[in-house]
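INFO batch 0412 | record 1 of 1 | parsing
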Amino acid sequence: MSLQNAPVVAHVVRQGFVESVHHGLAVLTDPAGDVERAWGDPTTPVFPRSSLKPLQAIASLRGGAALTGEALALACASHTGEPWHLEGVRASLAASDLTEDDLRNTPGKPLGEAALAAWLAAGHGDERIAQNCSGKHAGMLRACRASGWSTEDYLDARHPLQASVLEVTREYTGEEIVTVAVDGCGAPVPAFPLVGLARAFGRLAAARDGEAKLVADAMRAHPFHVGGPGRPDSELMAAVRGLIAKEGAEAVVAVGLPDGRGLAVKIADGNRAGRVVAAAALRTLGLDEAALDALADVPVLGHGETVGAVVATLA
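INFO prediction complete | emitting tokens
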């Protein structure tokens, strides 16, 4: 199945009228990594986008990056650019005698509304440190410094670090890579079957030792370094004990539960329904946390007031 043939998984409802529909895919894997339930074909290849970051962080650890605590959480992050995010990235770089001038990610501005306002008020424009992937790039640079690899071309798909990312991706997803493209931040991003993303997150969340446990523990201990205040994945990790979660661009959501089950969602049009569908799928596992209500809360507005919602339609 291609994304063009994906089933309807959500409705946009305005005052009781279905205004739009979202097609998409969702898959739940059991602790063994096998498909427990799927909506659409879970073998459909997708780009995980920023949901890949925990696996990229593992590659950085394998490259010798001495990432722990907040620095490791930032290596998994799509941060909102709060001052403490940026200071954390700078500190991580400095720990390996690097500076923000060594970053090669796409320049950008903070994602957080308040952080952006403060950034602009201070006279800043697009800078690499403010772009949401700067923590990941700091981790990659630290691996290069530790392994004696070149830092100028660490985003080249042929670089040893990027080869390690592909190796880690195959190992944790259990899937072959279909193609490799360039992500928004400039790093290579592989495409692989959606089921592999769910499987990888289940394995990360259930890890009892090693690099996977280090990454999962850092995400759980510092959920707001992984995203920021109000970000769905951060709020969900803060609310549900043992869970890890990471959103990606174009409506990708990945979740791992401490018992080894995993979830991955991809909305075909890359729009806003990913978190709503993820919440509905998690409820089928018996999770009825208040956090899922917040995750699924995507209002439809009329004249500034809530007049409807995006509603999951998982059968």
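INFO post-check: Residues 3-312 form a domain with the Beta-lactamase fold (CATH 3.40.710).
INFO record closed
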